[in-house]
Amino acid sequence: ERLPELLRSMPKAELHIHIEGSLEPELIFALAARNGVALPYPDVDSLRRAYAFTNLQSFLDIYYAGASVLLREQDFYDMAQAYFRRAAADKVVCAEIFFDPQTHTARGVAMQVVIDGLHRACVDAKKDFGIDASLILCFLRHLSEEDAFATLEAAKPYLDRIIGVGLDSSELGHPPEKFARVFAQCRELGLHVVAHAGEEGPPAYIHAALDVLHAERIDHGVQAIHDPALMDRLARERIPLTVCPLSNQKLCVFPNLADHNIGALLAAGLAVTINSDDPAYFGGYMNDNFLQTFAATGLDSDAAYQLSRNAFEGSFADAATKQRYI
Ligand code: HPA
Ligand code: ZN
């Protein structure tokens, strides 16, 4: 009784949320109607029934199809505002939000349209929900280095509205080294750097994210468990791992939530955090992730405080903001 209440009510920082992954089926259909976009599913229920994933790629195919309804600045605003409303209900007070501009620019949507809509929602999130929100531009790793460089060029007029860059999409076959030069330029521009690594990919991809991209946080990182030297390093350097338990379960990274290694990662002293990844697709926002993970794995209240503290410490918020919650 008291643990669930603690989990629901404690202030949270969310460090791993793809805003396109917060697009609920109802909003997908509303935006499709508003924009005259045809969908390959007749209704909300049949779309939701398609959310039966076997691995990362099987999810990404449907996730990119869902994002095809986003065309106007207001669409991006409405999507982000809906996320902030849900996040606020789960006591999220700080959110660092991934977005995938290449998914949109490839359809002819201008970078300015994407960033204007998301940024306006971030400004209003503070006013309307008391959430400190910021944006992290993610490069799609299944696309080329050249495409990533072109995306960075297109984003340069708006870098004052972006705190950092990340790396997402299909991991296997697309190691961090592919983007070494893009990330070097991002760091020269003063941007924070994070990267998905070790979700499905091997520990070598986590090493490369740290050594080649100089990632300040590792998104997912759960495969580190197979590399004891890497575990020691992650613990010693307190590299935050933005773990997403319901995502890992839905994409079959672990057969069941009870098999998740979050307890082992915490016990090894890693700076683990809990996040929702793509909440509209994986069956839950922050509180669902906390409540289901604790119920399935038997984590206790000490773990709850530790996870919350890790997230604020690992965030890119200014010292004063972090200090309020640590
Ligand atoms: N992994 C990689 N790419 C993604 C994810 C993820 O979990 N979610 C959205 N894009
Ligand atoms: Zn992710």
UniProtKB/TrEMBL annotation:
Q: Which cofactor does it need?
A: Zn(2+)
Q: Name one GO biological process term.
A: nucleotide metabolic process
Q: Which InterPro entries match?
A: A_deaminase_dom, ADE, Ado/ade_deaminase, Metal_Hydrolase
Domain Adenosine deaminase: start-end pairs: 11-326
Q: Which UniProt keywords apply?
A: Hydrolase, Metal-binding, Nucleotide metabolism, Zinc
Active-site annotation: E199
- Cofactor: binding details: Binds 1 zinc ion per subunit.
Which family does the record claim for this protein? Belongs to the metallo-dependent hydrolases superfamily. Adenosine and AMP deaminases family. Adenine deaminase type 2 subfamily.
Q: What is this protein's record name?
A: Adenine deaminase
Organism (species): Pigmentiphaga aceris
